Amino acid sequence: MEVIKVRDYNEMSEKAAEYIIEKVKANSKIRLGLATGGTPLGLYKNMVTDFQHNNTSYRRVTSFNLDEYVGLSEEHPNSYRYYMNKSLFNHINTLKSNIHLPNGNAVSLQEECIRYDQLIQDSGGIDLQILGIGQNGHIGFNEPGTPFGSKVHVVRLTESTRQANKHFFNHMNEVPTHAITMGIQSIMKSKEILLLASGGQKSVAIHKLLQGEVSQQFPASILQLHPNVTVIADEEALSLALSYI
Ligand SMILES: N[C@@H]1[C@@H](O)[C@H](O)[C@@H](COP(=O)(O)O)O[C@@H]1O
């Protein structure tokens, strides 16, 4: 795992955007895996600014998002589809037909998992997967205990994850209880992974990611076994793992 240490959230966002833009320029048909949450918001903002100034084209780029809440429509302001449209897709020249997220409102969630998994495979797989990390080590919505062999699946969110995401909602009882997420195996199949982390509340997770044992109880630890992972983390997120770099 390569670790790039940055000063703060802004520098993390700038570096991550530079990293991705370079990859998009090198391969106009790149298949990106995208993440949501607070962490990548600055990254997307920088990608939008770059698009406005430099016209980096996303016309041929395909994207697959990691996850989506169950029970929220695409128009719901807290759905990840809405989040992606608002923070990135509405401001760059991606083709709608090239944008993919799981449908958390599907009649059969099991069939939706199979469809989404197949779609990723049929496309040829993900070239570059962007990841954040949950305080309990979750990636996507793969909570502790998720089998490392998991494909796209429905998860029940832990209370701690619901708590961590509640600031996006008006009330705790509006925070969905379930989500569809790419599994650990789906994530590990990506050719390359870029994980972002900022702030002291991620320091334990980053320490375990870099120096802990590989265990299903800490899902992100599996990334130690992936051949091409880059972590861009700021000083606070790296504060417990400083000996690593
Ligand atoms: N499903 C998302 C993850 O993809 C994200 O990485 C994580 C961290 O979120 P944040 O970046 O807001 O700390 O939480 C959410 O639950």
The percent range for helix content is 25-40%
Q: Biggest β-sheet: count, sense, barrel?
A: 7 strands, parallel
Strand order of the largest sheet: 1-10-9-6-2-3-5
**Helical run tally:** 7
Poorly predicted runs of 5 or more residues? none
Number of domains: 1
List the quaternary state of the chains: single chain
Classify the secondary structure makeup into a structural class: alpha/beta
GO molecular function: glucosamine-6-phosphate deaminase activity
InterPro entries: Glc/Gal-6P_isomerase (IPR006148), Glucosamine6P_isomerase (IPR004547), Glucosamine6P_isomerase_CS (IPR018321), NagB/RpiA_transferase-like (IPR037171)
Function: Catalyzes the reversible isomerization-deamination of glucosamine 6-phosphate (GlcN6P) to form fructose 6-phosphate (Fru6P) and ammonium ion.
Enzyme class: hydrolase
Describe the protein.
This protein is α/β, with parallel strands linked by helices. The protein is built from seven helices and ten strands. The protein has helices spanning 9-26, 41-54, 80-87, 109-123, 159-165, 184-188, 203-211, and strands at 2-6, 31-34, 62-65, 67-69, 99-100, 128-131, 153-156, 178-181, 192-197, 229-234. The strands form two sheets. Strands 1-10-9-6-2-3-5 form a seven-stranded parallel sheet, with helices on both faces. The chain has a three-stranded antiparallel sheet with strand order 4-8-7, covered by helices on one side. α1 (9-26) packs across α2 (41-54). 2-amino-2-deoxy-6-O-phosphono-alpha-D-glucopyranose is lined by residues 35-39, 66-67, 132-134, 140-141, 161, 165.
